[in-house]
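User: Can you help me understand a structure? I only have the sequence.
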Amino acid sequence: MKILAIESSCDETACAVVEDGVNVLSNIVATQIAEHRLYGGVVPEIASRRHAESISQVVSKALADASCTLDDVDAIAVTYAPGLIGALLVGISFAKGLALSSGKPLIPVHHIAGHIAANYISHPDLEPPYLCLVVSGGHSHIVEVLDRTRYRVVGRTHDDAAGECFDKVARTLGYEYPGGKFIDKASKIGNANAFRFPHPKVDGCEYDFSFSGLKTAVINLVHNSVQKGTELVREDVAASFQRTVCEILVGKTMKAAEDLGYKTIALAGGVSANTGVRDALQSACDDRRLTLYMPELRYCGDNAAMIGCQGYFDYLAGKRADQSLNGIATLSLEKISE
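Assistant: Let's start by predicting it. Here is the structure, written out as tokens:
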């Protein structure tokens, strides 16, 4: 079964053709990073316009690379939530048009479910139930994956997401957007023990995250240094910050795994490409004899292959959408499990 998948939730216009959920026949991504870098972050209006300009060519390229036409596709999957509403609507509108004109079924896919599903592409042997740490620019979750279409969120951020924190700290340190990869690179040469940053906690929510205080602590350190005329080694700040984020993410995930009895752990989301997070989580799982699954780096960021994979499982579960499908900026994973 071939699924044409479209992803446009933020600043990547993506389309893929995926066969039987895990066989990626094509995976095209048109990125907008260079333009948004001028502003230090994603500008929603610009993102929406660039999606509208790129989507037709991206879809055509995905079909061509898969050596098929729309007639060869069995269904069309599209990200409908969560994300930037204008960006989502471009992908949804295009997908609805394709579905209407071709008579193909339309499958609505949750963006975070797609990130989790990226692991099935890299690891077809992964079977639910398992515990998944989802970390990206807009999301930080610990999720019980009950089966391929049902989820229970046991931990979430109360303010900034981990990826958002990486970008804001990177900007403070003078790195370009997106800052996560620059902090990761700097951490390899910096002293991770140079600074001690706080590990914020949320009372009564032991698996939940809070990164706002950590971000503020780093920003205050840098600003105080500037005001006093003292010099900081930014690689040391970056390394110490990344170590702290890793300790928070991994510590809470291991706590949840122990309390809930999970022996299988997965990692997902854009920040899953961070080498510090990957190494720390792998080490923690090895120490506890837990099995860890992580997506290949090419499937960590936003892409349509993961949407095609999840779309396949959603299709098997009977999920369909009609021409009334709309974009939803914020939607919990648990809502789609009801």
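Now, to help you interpret it: The chain has ten helices and ten strands. The longest strand covers residues 23-31. Let me know which part you'd like to focus on.
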